[in-house]
TrEMBL record:
GO molecular function terms attached to this record: transmembrane transporter activity
Coiled coil stretches, renumbered: none
Pfam families for the chain: Na_sulph_symp (PF00939)
Record bears the keyword Thylakoid: no
Keywords: Membrane, Transmembrane, Transmembrane helix
Organism listed in the record: Pandoraea faecigallinarum
TM spans (from-to): 12-37, 44-66, 72-93, 105-124, 199-220, 254-270, 276-293, 305-324, 344-362, 369-389, 401-419, 426-447
GO cellular component terms, A-Z: plasma membrane
Protein name as catalogued: Sodium:sulfate symporter
Keyword Thylakoid annotated: no
UniProt cross-references to InterPro entries, sorted A to Z: DASS-Related_Transporters, SLC13A/DASS
Subcellular location: Membrane
Length: 453
C-alpha cells in the first residue's frame, strides 16, 4: 500500500512539474515516513533504507545523505547514553529522582505537570533543546524507576514523551531557547530589518504557546497513557524514611562533570563549540579519567538502532534542504493573496501555512523558508508585519509527527520510546491544540493589540 501511495504521489508531482532530485527526494521521504509512522518495519531498517534510496536514486552525494554522522546531534545521542549510564551506575540519577519523587511522586498527573514545567523552565536558562533533552531524559527514567513505572508501563512512555515534547514545543515561546526561533529572529533582522525583543516576544507567546499548550501536553498524556504511581520504596524501621547518605566520591565527580558541561553549553556563544562535541568530551571523561563508566560494560549495553535513526532523520532534513522542494514552493507562496481576507481568516491561513511547512521541511528549516516571504504575505493583509512573522511560531510549536523535531527523535532514542507511541502522542496533541491553542493565540493577540499592528 505504501509503495502504491509513493508511486501515485510521484506521478502527481511529476505532472506538477517536479523533476530530478526534487522529485526523487519527495517520493523517498514520503515512503520512509510512512514506514516510520506505521511501524511496519523496524526503525533502523527504515533508516538504512532511507540512506540507500537517497544514495542510489539521487545525486545528492554522501556528504548530504550521511551528514547525520557528522552532526553534533548524532554524537549527543552517544554521549547521552554514556552520561545516562553514569547517572545510573553512580546513583546520582537516583538521588535526583528521590528529590523529585518527594514533590511530584504522589500522583501521575502531578508528575506529568511537574516535568513539563521543569522542561519549560530549563528552556529559559539553557538555549539548547538537545542539551535539555540530554539532561532530562536520564532523570525522567530514574524517576520512573523510583515510582514503579518500569519499562513497558504506559506511564513511563507518557512521562518521557510529555517531557520531550515540552522541551521542543514550549521553548518556542522563549526567543533564544531553540534553533528555529534563532533562525527566524536572525533571518527577520538580516532580511526584513525587524528586530524581535525578548520581552515582547514572551508576552505575545508565553500565555498560549507555553501555558495552554503545556496543559494540552499533560492532559493528552494522561488520557493516552493512563497509569498510577507506586509509593517509593522506603527503607528503615517502622516505615520511617532512612536518612539519605551523603554523596559518594564518584557522584561528586559526575556532578562536577555535569556542571562543567552545563557551563560550556551556556557559554557556547563565546567558544562556538557545538553541544554534541561538548557532550562527547564529557562522555570520554566518564569512560576514561573519571572512571565512572566501564567501557566494556557500556559496549555490551549500548544499542546502535537509535544512532541510525538520528543519523537518518538529520540526513532526511539535509536532503530536503539541498534537493530544493522548499525552493519549488516559493513562487506559489509568494502569490498567496491575503488582501481579500479579514483578520481571522488571514491569521488561520498563515497558521495553516506554517504548520504545512513544518510538516514538509521540519521545524528547523521552516523559518528559513517562511521568514523571507513575510513582506509578500503581509502586502495588503489585515495583519501587521510582525504579526505575520509571529504566526509561524504556531506552526513551529505544532509537532504533528516526530521526524519534524530532531530533539524529540533524540529523546526517543535515549529513552527507548517507540515511533508508534510517539506518533500517536504527537497526532493527539495536535488535534487538541488546533481548536484550543490556535484560536486562543488569536484572541490573546487581539487583546494586546498584536493583530492590529
Amino acid at each position: 500500500m505504501l509503495l502504491g501511495i509513493g508511486v501515485a504521489v510521484g506521478v502527481a508531482l511529476f505532472a506538477a512539474g517536479l523533476r530530478g532530485n526534487t522529485l526523487a527526494v519527495a517520493v523517498v521521504v514520503l515512503l520512509c515516513l510512512g514506514y516510520w509512522a506505521t511501524g511496519w518495519l523496524p526503525d533502523f531498517v527504515v533508516s538504512l533504507m532511507l540512506m540507500f534510496l537517497l544514495m542510489t536514486c539521487t545525486s545528492l552525494g554522501a556528504n548530504v545523505v550521511f551528514s547525520g554522522f557528522t552532526s553534533s546531534a548524532f554524537w549527543l545521542v552517544f554521549s547521552g547514553a554514556v552520561i545516562g549510564m553514569a547517572l545510573n551506575v553512580t546513583g546520582l540519577g537516583e538521588r535526583v529522582a528521590v528529590r523529585l519523587a518527594d514533590h511530584c511522586g504522589h500522583a501521575y498527573g502531578l508528575a506529568l505537570a511537574g516535568f513539563v514545567a521543569i522542561a519549560f523552565a530549563l528552556g529559559i536558562v539553557m538555549p539548547s533543546t538537545l542539551g535539555r533533552i540530554a539532561i532530562l531524559t536520564p532523570i525522567v527514567l530514574s524517576f520512573c524507576d523510583r515510582v514503579g513505572l518500569t519499562p513497558g508501563r504506559p506511564g513511563r512512555t507518557g512521562l518521557m514523551l510529555a517531557t520531550a515534547l515540552a522541551s521542543c514545543e514550549l521553548s518556542t515561546a522563549i526567543l533564544p531557547a531553540n534553533l528555529p526561533n534563532l533562525v527566524m529572529a536572525g533571518t527577520a533582522e538580516a532580511v526584513l530589518g525587524l528586530r524581535l525583543g525578548y520581552g515582547e516576544y514572551a508576552i505575545a507567546l508565553v500565555p498560549t504557546l507555553a501555558m495552554v499548550r503545556g496543559v494540552v501536553l499533560v492532559a493528552v498524556a494522561q488520557r493516552l497513557f493512563p497509569d498510577r504511581l507506586s509509593a517509593p520504596v522506603i527503607t528503615g524501621a517502622n516505615d520511617i524514611p532512612a536518612p539519605r547518605p551523603s554523596m559518594r566520591t564518584d557522584e561528586k565527580r559526575l556532578l562536577g562533570a555535569l556542571v562543567l558541561m552545563l557551563v560550556l553549553w551556556l557559554t557556547e556563544p563565546w567558544h562556538h563549540i557545538a553541544a554534541g562535541w561538548i557532550g562527547l568530551g564529557i562522555a570520554l571523561l566518564c569512560l576514561g579519567p573519571l572512571r565512572l563508566v566501564n567501557p566494556d560494560a557500556f559496549l555490551k549495553q549500548v544499542k546502535l538502532a537509535p544512532l541510525w535513526f538520528v543519523a537518518a532523520i538529520i540526513g532526511l532534513t539535509a536532503a530536503v534542504d539541498h534537493a530544493g522542494p522548499a525552493n519549488a514552493l516559493r513562487p506559489a507562496l509568494a502569490h498567496l493573496d491575503l488582501a481579500q481576507m479579514s483578520t481571522m481568516p488571514a491569521y488561520l491561513v498563515l497558521v495553516g501555512l506554517s504548520i504545512a511547512l513544518v510538516c514538509l521541511v521540519t521545524s528547523n528549516a521552516a523559518p528559513a523558508l517562511f521568514t523571507p516571504l513575510v513582506p509578500a504575505l503581509a502586502l495588503g493583509a489585515p495583519l501587521g508585519m510582525k504579526a505575520v512573522l509571529l504566526t509561524q511560531t504556531v506552526g513551529i510549536s505544532t509537532i504533528v509527527l516526530p521526524y519534524q523535531a530532531p530533539p524529540l527523535v533524540l529523546a526517543m532514542a535515549l529513552a527507548g520510546v517507540g515511533i508508534r507511541d510517539a506518533t500517536r502522542y504527537c497526532l493527539a496533541t495536535t488535534l487538541v491544540a488546533l481548536p484550543s491553542v490556535v484560536p486562543l493565540t488569536a484572541l490573546w493577540w487581539q487583546a494586546i493589540g498584536r493583530l492590529h499592528q
